[in-house]
Amino acid sequence: TGVAVGVMTVTDRRTVGTQTEDETIEWKISGRVGERFGDKVHLNVTSYNRKVLLTGEVPNEQTKLDIGEIAAKTENVLVAYNELQVAGISSLTARSSDSYITSKVKTRFIDAGQFSHNRVKVVTEAQVVYLLGIVNENEARSAIYVARTTEGVRKVVNGLEVVSEEEARRLDGGNKNSGATERKE
User: Fold this and answer.
1) Is 154 exposed, middle or buried (0-12, 13-18, 19+ CB in 10 A)?
2) What is the number of alpha carbons within 13 Å of residue 86 lying toward its C-beta?
3) What pLDDT score does 148 carry?
């Protein structure tokens, strides 16, 4: 497991500090929402480069707004994208189907060989695929195309942060172990 984590860390364009911060953000939001709403909601929190994606189901619009506010006010969050749906909690079958779609998209990234598949995080909810990551223009085009043409995908939401080729090379070059997490606003 350590080797796999090490490889993913090396191919990720976020610093190790930012990766750790993203995990902390996810835990904080999940914990705060869990304390307040318990099992009344189905929430997935994904943080990538301090940008938070909220997916899942909530019982009403007010709960959706409240969870969005919790996320937006969490320390170190730059922006929160509230994609929660006002609907009944999804079934285990639906979640399994979404997991399968995510696996298919990731496998197709590998098969396409256009970029390191670890540079794009894939989240699927209700057959909608959300793409997050720091990529150059060609990588973004490839990732979106692969996701859109994957069987079972109803829609693709592009949350990719596109950087220049030069910036991508710089990020690939060794900014990983600084632990610095400069806030860009």
Assistant:
1) exposed
2) 8
3) 98
> Nearest Cα to 67, choosing from 50, 44, 97, 47?
44
Token output for 103: 């696996």
- Position 70, amino acid: I
CA angle 176, 181, 183 (to 5 degrees): 140
- pLDDT-derived band at 173 (thresholds 50, 70, 90) equals confident
φ, ψ of residue 43 in degrees (nearest 5): -125, 130
Signed CA dihedral, 170, 176, 178, 183: sign only:
positive
Helix residue ranges per DSSP H, the chain? 2-11, 16-37, 61-72, 92-112, 137-148, 165-172
